[in-house]
Amino acid sequence: MADQKRVFLVDAYALIFRGYYAFIKNPRINSKGLDTSAIMGFMNSLLDVIKRERPDHLAVCFDQGGSADRVEMFEAYKANRDATPEAIKLAIPYIKEILKAMHIPIMVKEGFEADDVIGTLSKQAEKEGYQTFMVTPDKDFAQLVSENIFMYKPRFGGGYDIWGVPEVLAKFGITDPLQVIDYLGMIGDASDNIPGLPGVGEKTAKKFLAAYGTVENLLANTHELKGKMKEKVEGAKELGLLSKKLATIMLDVPVSFHAKDFELNQPNLEKVTEIFNELEFRNLLTNFLKTFDTETIKNTPKTAKNSTSAALEKSKYNKAASVVAGQFDLFAAPGAGNMTKAETASGFKSIENTNHFYQHINTAFARKLLLQKLMQQTSVCFDTETTGLKALEVELIGIAFSFEAGKGYYVSFPENQDETKTILEEFRPFFESDEIEKIGHNLKYDIKVLSNYAMPVKGKLFDTMIAHYLINPDMRHNMDILAETYLNYQPVSISELIGKKGKNQLSMRVVPIADQTEYAVEDADITYQLKEHFTKELENGNVIKLFEEVELPLVSVLTSMEIEGININTEFLNELSVALTDDINRLEKNIFEMAGEEFNIASPKQLGIVLFENMKLVDKPKKTKTGQYKTGEDILSYLAKDHKIIRDIQEYRQYKKLQSTYVDALPIEINPKTGRIHTQYMQAVAATGRLSSNNPNLQNIPIRTERGREVRKAFIPRNENYILLAADYSQIELRIIAALSEEETMIRAFKNGEDIHASTAAKVFNVPLDEVTREQRSNAKTVNFGIVYGVSAFGLSNQTDLSRSEAKELIDTYYETYPKLKAYMSAQVDFAREHGYVETVLNRRRYLKDINSRNAVVRGAAERNAVNAPIQGSAADIIKIAMINIHNRFEEENFKSKMLLQVHDELVFDVYKEELETIKPIIKFEMENAFKMNIPLDVEIGTGSNWLEAH
Asked: Are residues 138 and 64 part of one domain?
């Protein structure tokens, strides 16, 4: 029926969990420290359904109190479920509040699951002539599918699949959707702890259903089965019948479908806006308002599933002023652009409703006037517009300047690079001025762009990205988010000008100059305003000294390192790739022989079947929520001791990753202009204060395996007149924890220059220092490094040859030997509980929002961070100080030698051979004296014709 009404029933928790885990690697934390991932994920899915389908009727169904009937039938039902993440528990009240504001009914019944509520409502709606769509990724719902009831399954990566009767029959190999219940009863469900029939997997279940149709028929004809399968099924008849009951969705929940109550109506926009603003959902609010805009609704057909892409308007922001000879008002007051002050529906200020005056500077006379004004300032924000993202390869399109809120100027550059250099040269006095503070957001990028034109940036810096990183390290730091959060201002999105990422994205050069002006100057203006705001925040957070004396000077250091780059031996990498291919082929052959069959080792699904179904390496293998066997490193490492095939698989994975991530990828990263690799150091990513690197990531090159170490051989000096030097802090984290805890025994060992691991072994195993065995030292080393990360007896036993009880005894003895260390760790946790954060030696804060969580697992992770963050963070602080001091010494003494890389506790230098003996003591002195503690810092220095040789 063309006019048949449609009901959409949303499985709340399924979409909430799905949304939460979609952001698990990059959780959405707002400025108040609230993890909003689950709320955002759920709302994205809900709005997607509404936009795509424009349903007539909609309801969201929740669980409450679990299934009383199923628990009564089987006490262990869902007993193995992990505790609900704290972030999801906190999300539920917000989600329900949003749904109420949207006038969407929440269907829930104490003692019943959402599956049962949806099942009951689906059948009721069907009887009243409605088509019902069950919005859920859960395959269990397939049993409900009928001529007018469908599954609306969200796909990973976007979009939905609709399962009607034909799709269900094809998916499960059955003749009636009701047989899905029998299928689930046979295979069981690890996530719900439904036992199923032992030994029956997906393939076997389909065979049984084809032959017998139902669980009952199968159990009535077990005499036709053979061997162990017959024995297993006959011995589990009651279990099979119970499993089928547990898998059956109930259709008699005391809830009612009232069509009028389920109608999708216009939401309370004011209330939803208020909640979204509280949660800091800027983009989502825009999406929401657009979804319920009357014009959007009117123009969206039902079942549209449309995916429109916005075309570039020729000149959306045509209100920008343009300076021409004889007609300009270069230093007009803010507001001279005659912009209105109307409020937007979202409640944000924007370029279209805020008074501002942004001018395009396009004549020599205007540039001269602008430079005169710039040279009168003490603080100016500038922002470059370029042809791409690779700073050392792009061309300059324009530079925006702002030194007063609501006001700014845009200097554009021609495509001809000689002309660009000539125009840029006019501004050299500004960029080289030591008296003018330069403000920017991710200034390292802008400074590198200007370096392409031999234009240095001197004077004090203020980077708003770095400032916010110190203020709120767990939040995202992009300028748009900061503007919305701290200024209640929504900037123009770059995608509005040049489109989204991909081959259809335009170059900024083709954007009309008026639009370029408005976009670029807005960025500079907003960044200037953020600087004013963050200066106070830095003082309030007691991190202004860390910002001004460490993080800001480090911007210049990292910029110089990135511009310098490092030389790569591509011929060696090609040879190493061939050798790795041979290793991979050898391991593949061994694995296939041990498995007795060929399969795709890289496929977790195929690997799981081989290891746990065919080879039966463990009795009760763990499964994912989708029923697939878990084959992650944590699982394999536990089995590696006892099974050679596992060790070979681990080695196979290491070699494949090494080859794809480094050996074959490093040559691709070589800059065509310089012939060198220029990694990008990320200063505002790791919450601990550590640097990370990208394109390529040099922090994760393996060092513990022979093949991993070989990758370092590819990093070589610039030419035969240079040599690589590596300077590495020795056991810096142990020295820091000994100093902070004031543990005399450890302090004494370090001061006496003892082998700290042997010293620890002598204490905990109660043997003389000269009688410590290699195994005792190794175990003590594992505890020494593991203790900072909260190593457990289970974890220690996995990393050593110790049993779990021996590992526990070793940890207990360790704490008895070092009582002040344990007291310090407890004090750190107590401090975090009271203040909500911990600090490094330089007052860098790590905020721990979960430190008082009621969830023991979540709280435990926060407690480990309370101990670990000050140690890791202090080590990061110290090496940053060393880098700044070494960089300054090299600059002052005009050395040809350069600092190239920072990897964890190590610095790598390209040293001019004639300067080597002069530079070695400078590096050692600056690193060992970067920060004074009651324990000396120790630095080991090596040199060589490649990085491995120097390390």
From this structure: yes
